[in-house]
Amino acid sequence: MYSAKVMEHFLHPRNVGVIEDADGVGEVGNPACGDVMTFYIKVKEDRIAEIKFQTFGCAAAIAVASMISEMAKGKHITEALKITNKDVAEALEGLPKQKLHCSNLGADALHKAIEDYLARKKEKEAGDDGNKPSCAR
């Protein structure tokens, strides 16, 4: 049913955990239907320097989150935004048809974390500008 790659990531997931002072957080899923996934990212010079995830879901959901964390780590945020559910499924050497929605969760959670980072960055830049002394503007 699952590829050897999916089983490897399910049994030995990479980058599991929480980043307490994350620059971006993205959560997707619905606890009522079972699958919930959260990504935490630290960004340095617009590159994903650190990435962690938590997921509540099936073997495929855990494998997808693990694979995405490896695919995104070190990438520029514009490159990481291009990671698709199809890319993840291919990197895992396929997912059963009924589990393809798990790859959507992973890509969506990563994209939400990046969008959160960009929103915080924009807010911080706007706030920083307003805090400068009037003679520095």
Mean residue pLDDT: 90
Poorly predicted regions are: none
Q: Percent of residues in beta strands?
A: 15-25%
CATH architectural type: Alpha-Beta Complex
Compute the number of structural domains. Answer: 1
The H/E string reads: HEEEHHHH
Class derived from helix and strand content? alpha+beta
Lateral arrangement of strands in the main beta sheet: 1-2-3
Distance between the termini: 62 Å
For the largest beta-sheet, the strand count, sense and barrel status come to:
3 strands, antiparallel
The number of strands is 3
The coarse silhouette is: elongated
Total number of helices: 5
The CATH class is identified as Alpha Beta
| Share of helical residues | 40-55%
CATH topology, by name, is: Sufe protein. Chain: A
Computed CA radius of gyration, to the nearest angstrom: 17 Å
Tell me the quaternary state: single chain
Organism: Ammonifex degensii (strain DSM 10501 / KC4)
GO molecular function: iron ion binding; iron-sulfur cluster binding
Protein name: FeS cluster assembly scaffold protein NifU
